[in-house]
Amino acid sequence: MSPSSAARPFSTTSHVYPSHLPTLYKSGRLEKKFATATAAVVGIGYGMAKYKEYQEQQQYHNAETEAASRRQSEAIMDAYADRSSLAELEAAVKAYETHRKG
Question: What is the pTM of this model?
Answer without folding.
Answer: 0.45
